[in-house]
Specification:
alpha/beta; Rossmann fold; 8 helices; 52% helix
């Protein structure tokens, strides 16, 4: 067997409230039970930069996007280490989130510039799973958590972002799942569609949970 040089980079995408964190945890457990080494990552990597990015994005989409991109660029070396050390790297969000959230608020020319900037800042995911949910239902879920909504968690914003995600999905080979389904059914569908290689014999790093 040829030893893999790096692991599979798998990302969950979708608007706030669709259940990415729940599915991410369940998927990590399921893959580990199959004998695969798994690292779990989330964006933004630096909470301080993430807060700045969200605040800035509420006023100016391009500035918010740049903050998110700086965070992504600074996290890129750690991502590369995880890809060398683990069979699978699972991540909650990627640069596609910036393209959907901030990019959808920009003119076409700026969206194109933003896409080029993202690909120069970090690695493109190998697989993307989009959890699709009506924004009104997503907001109901967020409200049930009794959390203060962030500046990007408004129904008008989320509807624009959901449309942007669906447009991205049509132009990429993403797996799109109806997030109204139960967490168990979502996990079943993800696992059924994955075609991951068997566990490697690489030297494993300590398990990462973030």
């Amino acid at each position: 067997m040829t030893r893999r040089l790096r692991g599979t980079f798998l990302v969950l995408e979708g608007i706030d409230g669709v259940g990415k964190s729940t599915l991410l945890r369940a998927l990590a457990r399921a893959l580990r039970r199959r004998g695969l080494s798994v690292a779990v990552r989330r964006e933004p990597s630096d909470p301080r930069l993430g807060a700045l990015a969200q605040s800035a994005a509420a006023e100016d989409a391009w500035t918010g996007a740049v903050y998110f991109t700086v965070d992504r660029h600074l996290a890129a070396p750690a991502l590369e280490r995880d890809l060398r050390g683990y069979d699978v790297v699972l991540q909650d969000r990627s640069f596609y989130s910036t393209l959907a959230y901030q990019g959808s608020a920009l003119p076409l020319r700026d969206r194109q510039r933003l896409a080029q900037l993202q690909r120069s800042a970090t690695r493109t995911p190998d697989r993307v799973i989009l959890l699709d949910l009506d924004p009104a239902e997503a907001l109901r879920r967020l409200g049930a958590r009794d959390l203060r909504r962030g500046p990007l968690e408004r129904e008008r914003t989320l509807r624009r972002v959901a449309r942007a995600y669906r447009t991205l999905a049509r132009s990429h080979p993403w797996q799109v799942l109806d997030a109204r389904q139960s967490p168990r059914e979502l996990l079943r569908q993800v696992l059924a569609a994955l075609d991951l290689p068997p566990p490697s014999r690489r030297t494993r790093l300590p398990r990462r949970r973030r």
